[in-house]
Amino acid sequence: MSSNERAAVERLDAAAMLARTERWCAINSGTRHLSGVGAMAGELADAFAALPGELRLVEPEPADAMAADGRVAAIAHGRHLHLSVRPDAPVRLLLTGHMDTVYPADHPFQSARWIDADTLNAPGAADMKGGLSLMLEALLAVEAGGSHVGYEVVVNSDEETGSFSSAALLAAAARGKAAALTYEPALPDGTLAGARGGTGNFSIRVTGRAAHAGRNPDEGRNAIVAAAALALRLNAAKGAGLAVNPARIDGGGPNNVVPDHAVLRVNFRPADAGAIERARAAIDAAVADVAAAHDVAVHVHGGFNRPPKPIDAGAARLFDLVKAAGADLGQPIAWRATGGVCDGNNIAACGVPVVDTMGARGGAIHSADEFLIVPSLAERAALSVVTMLRVAQGALS
């Protein structure tokens, strides 16, 4: 490593990273808990204000969802943090993370406990309040060394539910960037996510006709049966490069009434753009056939909100840079493909190379067993520091 890199790494404050992480984990910021998300946004704004540049809390873009009764209505989100530093710099980076967690205000998992001296069990500890803390610490160290790299930071409030109200902000921030780093957690052994599949979520409303189940059932049009037929048709579309998961049917009522309403929820996981086209064709065909066969009306809501993320030449160069930085720090870096998705999918779709698991090492995320490996805060902050400094020096050119 260069003397500048070593000096920047030595500036990292492990105690400060842990203290921030514990404080932020104590704030419930489940995506739909708007007061908690607002409190978290305020904490982040105060913390990231230590960096130069223009910091603002951005209002969410409109987003909607289909309720169990089939109505499509607007859903509220919290504000997103955006920081722009040296927008005219010749080399600019994008750093992203999310302030929301999957734990609502009434979830039983609300407090932290130490599993052992190096392992913290807490809501959002790995995913990703530890990642946000080490991202900030790495930027503070880079700034203290006098680096002139430009960067934008986006910390959104809705990543866990699809980034619907922050997608435009992320796309705008990605423009013109040499590379992007996203602070999703790495695996416990430090392995990074490489290629990712995409995802699409659909809510499909089926409207039939009510009738008495004993007196005149043939005059009814059973929406539950039609939704079940639709689920089976869509499930049959799965195959190489396309996973399909019919996940839920809402609807129905008393046993003596032919149900006239149902909502089918389906998730698709396409490996590439071709799989998305196959999925769309399968949806269109299934909807048309089931509507005709069951004499029901069908309305489809949703779409493919996370494009697949392949490892192209630009991403491969960035991964190699991160691997070399890790080697110089004594951190073996490997990566592997995953079926999970994140904002890295959307950033890659903008043509920007991204490594999207630069956060802390941890595991059991999205469960009450979520844990953070605390020494990894300093390890991964050092990895970010060296990576950013090398990108700033043109290592990707």
Automatic annotation (TrEMBL):
InterPro entries: ArgE/DapE_CS (IPR001261), Bact_exopeptidase_dim_dom (IPR036264), Pept_M20_glutamate_carboxypep (IPR017150), Peptidase_M20 (IPR002933), Peptidase_M20_dimer (IPR011650), Peptidase_M20A (IPR050072)
Domain Peptidase M20 dimerisation: 196-293
UniProt superkingdom: Bacteria
Cofactor field: Zn(2+)
Record flagged with keyword Phosphoprotein: no
Keyword Metal-binding on entry: yes
Name under which the protein is recorded: Hydrolase
Biological source species: Sphingomonas corticis
